[in-house]
Amino acid sequence: MSNLAIKVSNFTKTYGDFIAVDGISFEVNKGEIFGILGPNGAGKTSTLECLEGLRIPDGGTIDIMGIDPSKNSKELKNLIGVQLQSSGLPSTITVKEAMQLFSAYHNVQPRYDLIKRMDLWDKLNIQYSQLSGGQQKRLLIALAVCHNPQILILDEPTAALDVESRVELHTLMKELKSQGTTIVLATHDMAEAEKMADRIAILLKGKIMIIDTPKKIVASGSSKTKISVRTVGTSLVDLTDIVVDEYYVFYSDKPGTKVMELMNVIEEKGDSLIDLRVERPSLEERFLEITSIGGIQ
Ligand SMILES: Nc1ncnc2c1ncn2[C@@H]1O[C@H](COP(=O)(O)OP(=O)(O)OP(=O)(O)O)[C@@H](O)[C@H]1O
């Protein structure tokens, strides 16, 4: 367990006869940002809630730095930071009161710097229910990290956030990571997962389809790199049927070779290059490939 922050083995969660999470296993290293991706109903929240000790697993084991969350919730409370869902706070509590309450619960001084950082300083005496959706989210994040938890669990943290708040949260996450915090991040946002996560697990119907770095997950797919070329003349016209906004478009799994080949044709035919764009397949394409087929291809 030395370098491991979290070890999940054969974990199952059922609701009546329904198997929401079906015997999954994964490990999260200390200081890692671990992304959990999956379509609606895949079992992400059920998994996070069992990590947080809010739900009891129906099979398997969960170990968080040597603690079983279903049995030792008191020991767990200062170790982990959890971004609550909105319903977790009373509607009449003010921003200031919420920070005081959470700090007292964790026995630390109130972190008003986090309130400032989350751009809520002028809302200090405003009630929770009067904050906008994005402001509520930012408050919940400030509360989740007020006690410098070793493990931070975030469920869709940037949903409903505007671009600036999103960037601020990503910066905060990177800072926490550099201080050694382990972060588990469930998200629907592929770009966020690709940018932030060291490794990602893709969950589908309660099972893990793949766990790896974003780069390796993308590379393991059948999607090809898109090459778009704009030229002065028509040297490439016979080589592709796809022309988008005056760009000749090619798909290749050997983009380097393909680009050389196209450059040679342009030169041989006395044509001139105006623009060349090479776009590697995205995590989103790979995610759709995995989740639509229901398995790894
Ligand atoms: N309390 C519950 N009682 C019955 N079924 C539940 C309960 N909680 C979750 N489920 C079911 O378990 C499955 C997994 O739900 P979960 O919320 O874990 O998925 P999710 O991946 O977080 O989905 P989303 O992205 O939509 O939030 C879903 O089919 C859901 O309907």
Automatic annotation (TrEMBL):
InterPro entries: AAA+_ATPase, ABC_transporter-like_ATP-bd, ABC_transporter-like_CS, ABC_transporter_ATP-binding, P-loop_NTPase. Signal peptide: none annotated. Residues 6-230 form the ABC transporter domain. Keywords: ATP-binding, Nucleotide-binding, Transport. Coiled coil: none annotated. GO terms for molecular function: ATP binding; ATP hydrolysis activity. Pfam families: ABC_tran. Belongs to the ABC transporter superfamily. This is ABC transporter ATP-binding protein. It comes from Tissierella pigra.
